[in-house]
Each structure stands twice: as C-alpha cells, then as structure tokens.
Amino acid sequence: MESSIGELVLSGVKLMFIGMGIVYLxxxxxxxxxxTTSKLIHRxxxxxxxxxxxxxxxHEREAExxxxxxxxxxxxxxxxxxxx
Length: 84
Prior knowledge:
Number of helices: 2
Distance between the termini: 82 Å
C-alpha cells in the first residue's frame, strides 16, 4: 500500500489540473451566461426615455438656498458647542 513520492506528486499534479479545469470551465460558463443574459435584456427590455436636463424651477432653487442656510446654522451650532 505504500506509494512512492513520485506517484504521490503525480497524483497531486493530476488533481491540481482537474481542479483548475473545473474552475476554468465554471468561469467560462459564468461568462457565457452573463453575456447571453445581457444580450437578451438589451433585446427585450424597453429602453428608458432620455430625460433632458432642465433648469430647476424657482421654488426648487429657493429650497437649495434654504438648505444652505440650514447647513450654516447647524455648523455654527456645532462649532459653538465644541468651543464650550
């Protein structure tokens, strides 16, 4: 039942190539499935309409300035708290 060191190394190399082959085949299959799925999605999924960039209405611009004022007030409060 004793095996020589050469036979053990040969068995290890065979096992290594079998394992690497299985991993390679799995990865190749995974790439194929992903690319096929991508092609099917592009073929059958409806395209989203392109939304043109629009200047925000005036009330949204006012909200941004209110946000800026709120951030400034919070920052001042934190600064005052830390300086106590």
